[in-house]
Design goal:
This protein is of the alpha+beta class and 219 residues long. The protein folds into two domains: 2-77, 2-Layer Sandwich (Alpha-Beta Plaits), CATH 3.30.70.260; 86-215, Beta-Lactamase (2-Layer Sandwich). It has helices at 15-25, 58-64, 86-97, 101-112, 165-169, 197-215, and strands spanning 2-10, 29-39, 42-50, 71-77, 117-124, 127-133, 154-156, 172-178, 184-190. The strands form two sheets. It has a five-stranded antiparallel β-sheet. A four-stranded antiparallel β-sheet has the order 2-3-1-4, with helices on one face. A hairpin with a 2-residue loop joins strand 2 and strand 3 (42-50). The longest helix is centred in the last third of the chain and has 19 residues, at 197-215. The radius of gyration is 18 Å and the shape is elongated. The relative contact order is 0.14. The model has no long low-confidence stretch (mean pLDDT 86). Residues 4-80 form the ACT domain. InterPro entries: ACT-like_dom_sf, ACT_dom. This is ACT domain-containing protein.
Length: 219
């Protein structure tokens, strides 16, 4: 089974190699690594690992904690596609999407940004219209979204007052970015980790490209 491991590590040469060695000694394979942030002497990395059936989940944490200075921010099951070219594939697909850009974003952004679901919507605090949603997206009927309309990317933590009680209990972390014609792309994942500013910037960048593509004439 695959797991997404978020690590806060000292930003120095060899640290990821040491983590890989520790995991390897525990019989755990690294599938992919994404460096989310770097600065002030630390780095934040998302590491997808493959856990053999005869290993326990706690062994992942035990292994990486043997490396001095490494902190585990979160560990959760990962069901996304295991590849290292997610954003490039999305950009290639956008060029062929035509009027299906919103649906493509809803389907692909969870895979690209290690999220659980995505929704493309528009509206105001008085009402919401859903244009496209991924398979795992929650029902937004009756959910007040006081942060609409949206003019800039925003992080939407699970403890905000508007978040439904069930979502709070599930620790649903969210972020959103403007898309096209007043629409918004909303991403969420249950149980954390919280989205970081670097992930928000990636979402804003991809949504901006998609909005430009959506305005292009048909090929």
């Amino acid at each position: 089974m695959s797991y997404l491991l978020r690590l806060v590590v000292p930003d120095r040469p060899g640290i990821l190699g040491a983590v890989a060695t520790a995991l390897g000694l525990a019989g755990i394979d690294i599938v992919s690594v994404d460096v989310l942030e770097r600065g002030d002497g630390i780095a934040v990395d998302d590491v997808v690992v493959e856990l053999p059936e005869d290993r326990v989940v706690d062994g992942i944490i035990t292994a990486v904690m043997t490396v001095p200075g490494v902190q585990v921010e979160s560990l959760r099951p990962f069901a996304g596609a295991l590849d290292t070219h997610r954003e490039l594939q999305l950009l290639e697909s956008l060029g062929r999407a035509g009027r299906g850009t919103a649906s493509l974003l809803a389907d692909e952004l969870p895979r690209v940004l290690h999220a659980g679901w995505a929704v493309v919507l528009s509206g105001s605090p008085d009402g919401v219209a859903v244009h496209a949603a991924s398979e795992a997206a929650p029902d937004l009927s009756g959910v007040d979204l006081p942060w609409l309309p949206l003019t800039a990317p925003v992080l939407l933590p699970s403890e905000a007052d508007w978040v439904p009680t069930l979502w709070r209990e599930m620790a649903v972390e969210m972020m959103a970015a403007p898309f096209d014609g007043g629409a918004v792309v909303l991403l969420g994942r249950s149980g954390g980790p919280a989205f970081r500013r670097s992930e928000l910037l990636r979402l804003a960048h991809l949504a901006g490209i998609a909005a430009t593509v959506a305005q292009l004439p048909p090929v």
